[in-house]
Amino acid sequence: MPAEVHVVFTPSGRQGNVPAGSTALDAARSLGVDLDTVCGGRGICGRCQVVPSFGEFAKHGITSEPGAVSDPGPTELGYGGKRPVAEHHRLGCQMRIEADVVLDVPPGSQVHKQVVRKRVEVPDMEIDPVVRLYFTTVEEPELDSPQGELGRLKTSLEDDWQLTDLRAGLTAVSQLQRALLKTRDITVAVRDGSEVVAAWPGFVDEVFGVAIDVGSTTIAGHLIELSTGEVRSSSGLMNPQIRFGEDLMSRVSYVMMNPEGADDLTSTVRESLDDLVTTLAEEAGLSTDAILELTLVGNPVMHHLMLGLDSVPLGGAPFALAIDEALELRASDLDITANPSARIYVLPCIAGHVGADTAAAILSERSHEAEGIQLMVDVGTNAEIVLGGRDRLLAASSPTGPAFEGAQISCGQRATAGAIERVRIDRETLEPRYRIIGSELWSDDPGFAEDIKKLTITGVCGSGIIEVISEMHLSGLITTDGVVDGSKASLSPRIVEEGRTFSYLLHDPAPDSGEPQLFITQNDVRAIQLAKAALYAGVQLLMDHLGVTELDSIRLAGAFGSHIDPTYAVALGLVPDCEIEKVTGAGNAAGTGAVIALLSGDARREIEEVVRRVEKIETATEPKFQDHFVEAMAIPHKTAEYPHLSKVIDLPARTESSADAGSGGRRRSSRSKRSSSSRSSREG
Q1: Which end of the chain is more exposed for a tag (fewer CB within 10 A), N or C?
Q2: How many CA atoms lie within 13 A of 486 on its CB side?
Q3: What is the spatial distance between Cα 501 and Cα 661, in angstroms, rounded to a whole number?
Q4: Which residues pair with 346 in a beta bridge?
Q5: By three-state DSSP, how is residue 408 classified?
Q6: How far apart are CA 222 and CA 105, in angstroms?
Q7: Bigger pLDDT: 537 or 561?
């Protein structure tokens, strides 16, 4: 057994070396991983469950073998706590790590649960659901009439509702027969005006559907009454595929290197879909049998993995989709518990890296009807970009990676209670103030300490990362080319030296608080530069193809995009300059589009037609992309002018790092000395 082993925890992305033989709980504690426990490691509470993931993980540079963890011992085998140990789960306080391994911390084992910010509002629209209810009275069977019950139902529906040429599957006929044994007054559900799909005894006036946005990080769903559009429940969960890779290409790579891994990725996401639908029904006080229609959207990789299609072709040119058309399936095809006759409508994909979620966002934002030039960006691990309007619509994607969601950032984390989400830096003193999820107060407001007494400041989420780096640039702490300026160390002890680079101390807790110091390092700045440059370059490429130099409006879509302050989105150089009041959040546009498709058959036909005329631009094969990328690495940009942004904030003069930029104040404060152990564990 080696002296040390390397362990990677997902979904946090925290990793580092720990002594061989350490328990997963001990490893989590040493690396600052959020792993719950009540019994203190005695193996009786069941809260510290982890899931070992096996296979070759190219992104992390390790191969995780089944022998990397110890076999279950007497405590695990004899465990009888109230919280059951799920299949493939292990007790983190008992399982020992004996070789390099990847460990997933499921949502139920996390102290600070993920905030799934994917709520949805049903827009003003004409509701035209594909499933409608009809109440009718079916004539009693007679000895001299050989007609079957289905035939008598068809006659009644034609007389009462003028429905003709109806068909019905075996499941619906069985439900019909059972309903008629109780009463001749029944309610039936008819899909697309042509198929009887369900039947109930008596009068039923509600039927339900579920719209689901299958994101690479989170999966969000909404249970809706189909005839009124009323949202009865909304819920979300972390996509458990994160343990196979935080970004989409990591998951494709996992499948490439582990051929059997495709089945694991598919079964994992389907289990989550089923769990989500069951949760939505329970929260609404309904049986899953009441659910007759579902719509699903997702990016191309999630689309293929969810459907059990090969995702490997999406990992390289020409990025060939197995199918780009809309699909209609049975819920049982994806192992989703609903009414036996329930159907699933999967919206069409647009291109190899522009998926059904983007099609749904177009439907929600009405991009194909926009006056002027509208830019819509869904900021995620893979940013989808739509540009244009009524006359012409272009779409592309840019590989931004997971940095905006906290991964690859030394103090980064997902949006949970206690995460810093807003940051301001005083231009004179260089002192920060911030706001965290779970409190409406800023850190310098009276009562802040009391208000967050039950919270722990554990890291910085995506919106906070964008703001702190923008603020550091606006304060002169970061040069235009993205270097943390060490000469500012003479002005503030928050600028601390680390080898040949410098970092900014954002959060300096009391020594006995148990909270980590939070630094913004040079590597953090670089990670954000790479991500935002990829996005900006993709936008600029579409502007080149469309032949425009100005944008009339920008819509920041997605759960993360909607929480970005528009001013800082432009100030960082995430998107081009635009009138700030016209840079707005679009909410969960993909989820809203899924809801629209759930409630309207016309909308389904509309988006299928629109997708066929969207022009797809592949950034990976465009020579100009690299040129735009290099210029966009600067903050906010190397050459672009910002007349609109300059009206609302004072932009610093463009500066570049020099040989002496990092030598103007080489002093280590007491803060930096105290930080070394906590920082190394968080940056592993």
Answers
A1: N
A2: 21
A3: 10
A4: 296, 327
A5: coil
A6: 25
A7: 537
HSE-CB for 440 with a 13 A CA cutoff: 0
Per the structure block, which two tokens stand in for 504? Answer: 């900014």
CA-based nearest residue to 53, from 261, 303, 247: 261
Residue reference for tokens 């059972």: 178
Q: Could you report how far apart the first and last alpha carbons of the chain are, in Å?
A: 22
Distance in angstroms (rounded) separating the CA atoms of residues 681 and 684: 6
SS3 per residue for 334-380: HCCCCCCCCEEEECCCCECCECHHHHHHHHHHCHHHCCCCEEEEECC
| Helices H / strands E in the chain, number of each | 17, 29
* Residue at 347: amino acid letter: L
User: Six-digit token pair at 175?
Assistant: 């439900």
Which pair of tokens denotes residue 7?
């362990």
Lowest mean pLDDT among 52-61, 499-508, 669-678: 669-678
Sheet holding 4-10, edge to edge: 15-19, 4-10, 101-104, 49-53, 90-91
Average pLDDT in the 498-524 region?
Answer: 90
Using the CB atoms, write b or e for 160-170: b if 16+ within 10 Å. eeebeebebee
Mean pLDDT of 663-677: 40
Helix (H, G, I), strand (E, B) or coil at 581: helix
Q: Are strands 101-104 and 49-53 parallel, antiparallel or unpaired?
A: antiparallel
Q: How far apart are CA 60 and CA 260, in angstroms?
A: 19
Task: Tell me the chain's radius of gyration from C-alpha atoms.
Answer: 27
Annotate 552-575 with DSSP letters as a single string.
Answer: SEEEEEHHHHTTS-HHHHHHHTSS
CA dist 570 and 303 (Å) reads 31
DSSP type of residue 146: -
Architecture field, domain 4-109: Roll (3.10)
Main-chain phi, psi angles of 73, to 5 degrees:
-95, -170
- Mean pLDDT, to the nearest integer, of 171-199? 95
Closest alpha carbon to 298 in 248, 347, 357? 357
Do the beta carbons of residue 439 and residue 422 sit within 8 Å?
no
- The CATH number given to 208-346 is 3.30.420.480
Tell me how many degrees the CA angle 154-156-161 measures, rounded to the nearest 5: 95
What whole-number distance in Å separates Cα of residue 93 and Cα of residue 43? 6
CATH 3.90.550.10 fits 131-201, yes or no: no
Question: Residue 111 — pLDDT band, cuts 50, 70, 90?
Answer: low
Task: Specify the 3-state DSSP secondary structure of 501.
Answer: strand
| Interatomic CA distance for residues 564 and 377, integer angstroms | 12
208-346 shares the fold of 131-201: no
Span 607-634, mean pLDDT?
Answer: 94
The structure tokens 């600029």 sit at 540
At 401 the pLDDT is 74
Sign of CA dihedral 251, 234, 587, 309: positive
DSSP 334: G
Question: What tens digit of pLDDT does each residue of 469-483 get?
Answer: 999 999 999 999 999
Under the banding of pLDDT at 50, 70 and 90, the label for residue 113 is low
pTM: 0.80
Residue listed under structure tokens 């790092």: 657
